[in-house]
Design a protein that fits this description.
heterodimer, A: alpha+beta, Alpha-Beta Plaits, B: mainly alpha, 8 helices
């Protein structure tokens, strides 16, 4: 059965500053090779704290299907 | 709450640095650490660990704008986040930086020391109280120039911290743009050479 889950999605405008790392309660964000932030969808709970902190407005929350 | 680590307090080093410079301009030289370390980490390690963990200035903006509440916490203007502005500002910043190095060279070559700190590349603040007699004039000239660069970027950072989100300066900070650019280039090269290697392994090339 499929259920929907809200997770953070990173867009290409990311400047890899790391502001989103600090507030994440689940340690679900990492910076991939100094280039862009990446979210571990399994850990993310969609709280949106990272999006609030992001100065580049490069995080949105989206619903994804999990099986 | 996440456990604090030693590097979470580096904002203090940033605050102390800016204050020390007011008392003795020669402390400005210490700011070179904030130029060399991130570049080395990006060039050698291919990461932005400096921005992500060790930058005292980013932490200071986070503290002032976040916990102290000086920021409006609005998304920065769209142009600030655009690639042309970020790379354009980096180019402008580096041009002004090299002009500052050129003035240092001129003093080294015999020109008179200018006891002034330039703010926002235009306003020259007289800085006559600085005690620079113990060093060569070019060492003092670099300190005046570099302190101007650090104060200017701090002022812009504070302004954008107040107007937008706490770390909005990080969107167009020349060091951040440069280190991200280096990391992207390095990754592209590595990916290309890994691609070539795997092609060889497949017997394609
Ligand atoms: S939405 Fe919440 S849990 Fe998910 S990455 Fe952002 S801060 Fe972490
Ligand atoms: S805060 Fe935004 S710009 Fe900075 S690393 Fe995270 S997603 Fe990227
Ligand atoms: S972008 Fe600039 S101010 Fe922000 S963390 Fe990196 S070096 Fe520091």
């Amino acid at each position: 059965m499929k259920t929907l889950k809200k997770i953070a999605v990173i867009h290409k405008e990311c400047v890899a500053c790391g502001s989103c790392l600090k507030g994440c309660p689940r340690n679900a964000v990492a910076i991939y090779k100094g280039s862009i932030a990446v979210v571990d969808g399994a850990k993310c709970v969609g709280c949106g704290k990272c999006a609030q902190a992001c100065p580049a407005n490069s995080i949105t929350l989206a619903e994804v299907a999990i099986v | 709450m996440k456990k604090k680590r030693w590097y979470d307090y580096l904002w203090m080093a940033s605050a102390v640095y800016l204050t020390l410079g007011l008392f003795n301009i020669l402390f400005a030289w210490l700011g070179l650490i904030c130029f060399i370390v991130p570049l080395m980490i990006a060039l050698i390690g291919g990461s932005k660990a400096y921005c992500n963990n060790y930058c005292g200035r980013g932490q200071l903006f986070e503290l002032l704008g976040g916990r102290i509440g000086l920021s409006r916490k609005k998304n920065p203007a769209t142009f600030l986040r655009s690639a042309w502005f970020r790379y354009g500002f980096l180019t402008f910043f580096m041009t002004m930086f090299f002009l500052m190095i050129d003035s240092t060279y001129l003093v080294f070559a015999g020109a008179d020391l200018k006891q002034a700190v330039t703010l926002l590349w235009v306003f020259k603040l007289p800085w006559q109280w600085a005690h620079t007699a113990m060093v060569s004039p070019w060492i003092a000239q670099f300190a005046f120039g570099f302190y101007g660069v650090m104060l200017t970027s701090t002022m812009l950072g504070i302004l954008t911290m107040i107007l937008f989100k706490p770390r909005s300066w990080c969107v167009y900070c020349p060091m951040g743009t440069m280190t991200q650019g280096i990391c992207k280039l390095k990754n592209r090269k590595e990916a290309a050479s890994n691609g070539r290697k795997s092609q060889k392994n497949c017997g394609v090339a």
